[in-house]
Every structure is written in structure tokens, then in C-alpha cells.
Design brief:
nine-stranded antiparallel beta sheet; Beta-galactosidase, Chain A, domain 5; mainly beta; 2 domains
Length: about 280
């Protein structure tokens, strides 16, 4: 059985791993890979998919009903093998369903699919989540692609294509403190290690629909966007050759979270039989 599947257009070559339904290579028309080459000295992922939680739970646990469950940061979907549901030259759908392993962490019956579709110089990533059980299902989902940067972080910038003022939510030890600070961006945010000294930059309900990672000479690397994201995270590590732009529908716990999954901030809910589709895109340059 194949471990990876490739998709192609004249503008894009995409390679996806069945484990985690993870993108591992995304090449533009010049055959340049825009995703970083994994180096576990820095990070052990390339572009994981996050489900059924985004971020870290308080004490890595939550309560549902009378029972306590344990789940690691960003959930289990990034570490499990997916089934191939559809595979065309420019479109791939991979599916994950509950197992005894997932039910031990997350007591819900579900069908979770990750669809990749190549259209021109864009790749659309769609998460479709269906509640196949008999009770209301709380969940979150998100992407975490790591783009390649081959120079120090201060040689890069984010172009939001519009000016804005937004709250940056403060993270400490993987959880939100409840505090925020105003950030005013005049379209361009110059990157530097100091911005990430206390973990990721997170904007909830972002007042923009796309952002471009580019070098300081305005040469574009990739644009990532969505019309309906709940939050966007930006993350790297000092000296690491990657930069992550993360579209989220959900986020980590607060320090004072109750631990009740039904009360989790940012959570989505699906009734029995209900489905939800959430999409972001990457435009390659």
C-alpha cells in the first residue's frame, strides 16, 4: 500500500502522507518546495491536521459527563492512518473514523475527512466533520502548515493586505492567560524572534481574510487565507528554518478553564447526523 499520494497541476505538485493526512511537499511551477524539510531537532511535523481539539487542554484532560479523558495537544488525528475515499489527478479525500483507540480519548462517533483540491496555483484544504453518533458532538479543527524559510527570521515579513488593530491573546505554558495586548499593523508585520518569545501569535476573529509570507524585499513565498476562520496562529522557534501560519476553528484552554468539554472556549457543536465543512487555501508563488 502506498504511504503517500501525489496530486498535480501545471502550477502545483502536492505530496500527502496517509499518516495524519499530512502535506509533506508542496512545490510551485519552478519545482521549489514551499514546505519545510522536517528536522526533528527543531520540530517533528511538517503540516499536521488538528482534530478533535486545537491547542492544549488544561492538564491534558477534560471532562464529559461523569468521566475524565486524556488527550494530547492538538488531538489524535495527526497521528493516525487515513483511508483513501477519492483520488483524482488534482483532488484527494482522506477519511478517518472512530476506533477503540479514539473512543478511549474522545467518546464520540465521527467521520472526519481532509480534502485537498488543486485549482490553478491554489490548493484548497477542506475539513468535513460528521457526527455519526447519537449525541451532540463538540469538536475543533485546524491546520498547521510549516513553510520553509532559509534565512534568519528578520529577513521575512507578513503582508496582511490591509491595516488593522487586533488583540493578541497571551499564551503561557500552552494555555491562554486571559490577557491580551493590542497590536496595530499597517499592512506589513516585520518578523523577529522577540515576537515569539512567549509562544505563538494568536488572533481570534481575525479582521483579515488572507496573509502572505514574504521576504523583506516583498518577494512572495505563499499566501494562506479563509473566509470564515475563527482564529489564526503564527508560530516558529528561534533559529528554526520554518514558519507556520495556522488556520483554526477553535483554540487552547485558558488557565482557568473548567475542564468541561461542553464549556470549552471556541468549541463547535454538531448534532447527530449533522456535518460541517471548513476550508482554507494556500496560494503558491
Amino acid at each position: 500500500m502506498r504511504n503517500t499520494i501525489g496530486l498535480y497541476t501545471k502550477d502545483i505538485e502536492l505530496e500527502v502522507k496517509l499518516l495524519g493526512a499530512e502535506m509533506i511537499s508542496l512545490k510551485n511551477s519552478a519545482k521549489k518546495n514551499l514546505l519545510w524539510e522536517k528536522d526533528e531537532n527543531h520540530w517533528n511535523r511538517i503540516a499536521p491536521n488538528l482534530f478533535p481539539i486545537v491547542g492544549k487542554l488544561k492538564s491534558d484532560t477534560y471532562r464529559f459527563g461523569e468521566k475524565k479523558y486524556s488527550m494530547k495537544q492538538h488531538g489524535f488525528a495527526r497521528d493516525l492512518e487515513y483511508e483513501v475515499c477519492a483520488n483524482k489527478v488534482n483532488k484527494l479525500e482522506l477519511v478517518l473514523r472512530q476506533t477503540s483507540e479514539t473512543l478511549a480519548q474522545y467518546p464520540f462517533y465521527f467521520c472526519f475527512s481532509v480534502e485537498y483540491e488543486l485549482v490553478g496555483n491554489k490548493i484548497y484544504v477542506t475539513y468535513k466533520t460528521t457526527n455519526t453518533g447519537k449525541e451532540t458532538m463538540p469538536y475543533s479543527v485546524g491546520g498547521h502548515p510549516g513553510f520553509s524559510i532559509n534565512l534568519p527570521i528578520n529577513q521575512f515579513q507578513l503582508n496582511f493586505h490591509r491595516p488593522f488593530i487586533v488583540d493578541r491573546w497571551i499564551i503561557k505554558e500552552g494555555h491562554y492567560t486571559g490577557e491580551s495586548e493590542k497590536m496595530e499593523v499597517q499592512r506589513i508585520l516585520k518578523l523577529k524572534d522577540d515576537l515569539f518569545a512567549h509562544d505563538a501569535i494568536v488572533f481570534k476573529n481575525p479582521p483579515f481574510t488572507k496573509v502572505t509570507l514574504e521576504n523583506i524585499y516583498s518577494e512572495k513565498i505563499a499566501t494562506l487565507g479563509s473566509d470564515n476562520w475563527d482564529a489564526v496562529g503564527f508560530w516558529t522557534k528561534p533559529g528554526a528554518p520554518f514558519f507556520c501560519i495556522e488556520p483554526w476553528w477553535g483554540w487552547a484552554d485558558y488557565h482557568d478553564s473548567s475542564g468541561n468539554l461542553l464549556e470549552k472556549s471556541g468549541i463547535h457543536f454538531l448534532e447527530p447526523g449533522q456535518s460541517e465543512k471548513l476550508t482554507y487555501y494556500i496560494e503558491v508563488h
